[in-house]
C-alpha cells in the first residue's frame, strides 16, 4: 500500500513538471521521501528537497517504416545517413548493428543511422542492390557515396564514417 502511494506521488510529480514550453522542470525528491510521523501522529514531510537532473535522449538511429519514410528521412536528409540493411535472423547483423550505432553516436549528430529490415522492406533492398546482409550504405545528399558488405571492426567503422562526413 505504501509503495503504491509513493509510486502515485512520483508519477504525479513527473507528469506535472512539464512546462507549457515543452521543457522539463527539475524533479524534486519531495514526492519520493517517506513521510515522518510526529508524536501527535500527524504526518510531516520534510521541507528539504533535492533535485534530480534529467536530460532528453537525442537518438541518431531510427528504423525505417516504409518507402515514403525512407525517402523523407534518408534521401531528402541534409545530414549524411548511414543505412544498415539487416535481418533478424542474421548473426553478423546482430554484431555489426550495435557497433555501428555506437560509432554513429560518437559523431554527435554529424551523421545519422537508418535501419532497414530486408524482410520487411524487400523493395528497398532490391532498389539498392542489397544481395547479402549486413550491407551498409553511406548516403549523402540523396546519393550513395560508399558501401560495404559484411562485418567490420570499430576502427574500420570510424574510418568509414569519417570518409562520409568529410
From TrEMBL:
GO terms of biological process kind: cell redox homeostasis
Superkingdom of this protein's organism: Eukaryota
Similarity remark: Belongs to the thioredoxin family.
InterPro entries in alphabetical order: Thioredoxin (IPR005746), Thioredoxin-like_sf (IPR036249), Thioredoxin_CS (IPR017937), Thioredoxin_domain (IPR013766)
Entry GO CC: mitochondrion
Boundaries of every Thioredoxin domain copy: 33-166
Protein name: Thioredoxin, mitochondrial
Source organism of this protein record: Camelus bactrianus
PROSITE patterns in UniProt: THIOREDOXIN_1, THIOREDOXIN_2
Chain intervals for the UniProt region annotation (Disordered): 30-49
Key words of the record: Disulfide bond, Electron transport, Redox-active center, Transport
GO MF assignments: protein-disulfide reductase activity
Amino acid at each position: 500500500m505504501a509503495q503504491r502511494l509513493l509510486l502515485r506521488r512520483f508519477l504525479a510529480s513527473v507528469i506535472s513538471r512539464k512546462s507549457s514550453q515543452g521543457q522539463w522542470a527539475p524533479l524534486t525528491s519531495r514526492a519520493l521521501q517517506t513521510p515522518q510521523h510526529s508524536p501527535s501522529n500527524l504526518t510531516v514531510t520534510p521541507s528539504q528537497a533535492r533535485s534530480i537532473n534529467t536530460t532528453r535522449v537525442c537518438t541518431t538511429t531510427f528504423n525505417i517504416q516504409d518507402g515514403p519514410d525512407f525517402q523523407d528521412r534518408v534521401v531528402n536528409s541534409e545530414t549524411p545517413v548511414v543505412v544498415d540493411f539487416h535481418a533478424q535472423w542474421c548473426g553478423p547483423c546482430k554484431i555489426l548493428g550495435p557497433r555501428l550505432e555506437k560509432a554513429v553516436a560518437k559523431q554527435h549528430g554529424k551523421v545519422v543511422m537508418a535501419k532497414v529490415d530486408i524482410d520487411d522492406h524487400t523493395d528497398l533492398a532490391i532498389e539498392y542492390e542489397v544481395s547479402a546482409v549486413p550491407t551498409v550504405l553511406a548516403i549523402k545528399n540523396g546519393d550513395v557515396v560508399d558501401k560495404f558488405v559484411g562485418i567490420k571492426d570499430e576502427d574500420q567503422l570510424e574510418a568509414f564514417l569519417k570518409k562520409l562526413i568529410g
